[in-house]
Amino acid sequence: MTEKPKLVLGTLSCPVRLVIAAPYRSLLTQEFSSQICHKNAHGRGSPFPHRTGGCPIFKSRESSVMFVLSFICFYMNFVAILMDTYMNIHNMERAMEGVRLAFPIASGLCIHQFMRLRREAVERLLGLTKPFTWEGAPTRDPHTGRLTMAAWIRRINTSAKKISALLIFIHFTYIFFRNVSSKGRLLQFNTWYPFETLSSPQYEIVNATQFIGSIMCLCSFVAFTSLYATLVCIACSQLEKLRANLLDIRQEFGTPAQDSGAETDTEEEEQVQMSQEVFCRMQEQLNDCIRHHQLILEYGHYLNQMNSRRLTFDICRMT
Questions:
Q1: Gene Ontology cellular component (predicted)?
Q2: pLDDT digit string, tens, across residues 184-230
Q3: For residue 287, what are the domain limits?
Q4: Which of 120, 299, 109 has its CA nearest to residue 221?
């Protein structure tokens, strides 16, 4: 009587893990232009909000115009706000207005610097998502009825665009009513400059730089938040996909593949051959799940390593 084959799965050591992940690492050496097309097609997010915020993601070199704009409109205005707070330290109301404005701008500057200094790490992390797919995943959990992580990935990009448009509209409305309600000329923010700002063309230039700096700050906030949320949802969606694949294998394994009532040797050999095919197919599926799990672990480790410093600053800022 032929012995029933056993399902044997070897443990994956670290060298094997590197061999498995090597084909996917080679994807990172491709041109970033093809990555952009792939990411936009599958909802991994658009680099436009980051570029609007002054972070040239997926560009070989940074535009000199964007660098000058980010320096003048973002950093110089922040210094001007701090200088105005210092010059009016005895005016508590005006000083507090400057402090309330300086804190969110400082957080936006940290996001801006983080994205500039860690640009290659962000691009590599986005490259690690290329082997992952979630387009065929269900949008609702069959047990709870809640949205799955794959469904949230599709909604994050749309929500980020709507939130950005809403914040820009609110800011523009604030500027409009501030100028209409004031009797004289007022800047968007209380700032101090070593020159006269209420006469033309200095007044128009300073207002333009403050408006552009505000848009860059808002885009930095929304872009980084939506990017981090998308990356986390990608990891969670892959865990959901891995769990679904394992459940499918379990259901297939639970299906009886051998008839206990077989009487002849020919029927028994056919059943054994069928069992061998089932076990080989199951072993192949389990190996695919193991490879998928190793990629998820690598991606999650790199995601945590990249964002640990930025999240630490956010926690300190909120406390």
A1: plasma membrane
A2: 888 888 899 988 888 888 899 999 999 988 888 888 888 888 888 88
A3: 48-132+146-318
A4: 109
